[in-house]
Amino acid sequence: MRHPIFMSACLAGAVLIAGCAEKDAQDTVERAFQDVNVIDESNLNDVMLTVADPNEAVSYFTRSLKANPDRLDLQRGLAYSLVRAKRFAEAAPAWAKVTEMEGAGPEDSVAYADALIRTGKWKEAEAALDALPPTHETFNRYRLEAMLADSNEDWTRSDSFYEIATGLTTKPSGVLNNWGYSKLTRGDYQDAERLFGEAIRQDPTLFTAKNNLVLARGAQGDYTLPVIPMDQTERAQLLHTMALSAIKQGDITVGKSLLRDAIETHPQHFEPAVRALNALGA
């Protein structure tokens, strides 16, 4: 009589063990899928922040936040995407929300100040940067501090911040161009020319610095193109810029000659230069 009972107990135990094993296996599978989902989501977030269309990224992070409104990474992704989409009026409050969330750091406040500057809210941006600890010394902070000093025409602080920012990045071309433009607006044309030249040496593709360099030379009455890397289209555009600079200073004959050179140099029909030359002829 004991054998059937013993067999029943064994079978029950086997079923229980099998059930536990099956449950453990199911839990393991579910955890594995959760891990995969986390990895996939992380990769998708990275894609949305870098190569995706900015407006598509905004839609993606907006949808994701509806399901997970307390996720700092998603709110930060939305704010970054709004900046990439040049929707600065929406980006500023999005960054403001980031700074109020648990886990937000000083660099989030810097990004908030950046968005405020892009919407022309200089005082609010200055307040955001002033609230940062002095130990938070980053390229982005000093780049913005320099721009704020420019807006206040505090040239000593501006130069100091630009110099610090330049030393905190391996790609200083953009900040050198901004520094040069600051010098240009002050009328310090030689220093501006030097800084634009350095920006171009750091990044030979930076056309904005090339154009600004031509403006700095033109402001000094130097209407010759600098020896810098340029293709045919860029050369025509720079000749056009130099022509307008000459005309602005009253050197009409030189301006006309430069406009003709620009029209002849451009590989296609150069409508802005043609219009300017026709206007001078009229």
From TrEMBL:
Kinase in keyword set: no
Signal peptide (residue range): none
The protein's name: Lipoprotein
A Pfam family the protein falls into: TPR_19
Annotated TPR repeat ranges: 173-206
Residue ranges crossing the lipid bilayer per the database entry: none
Coiled-coil ranges from the UniProt annotation: none
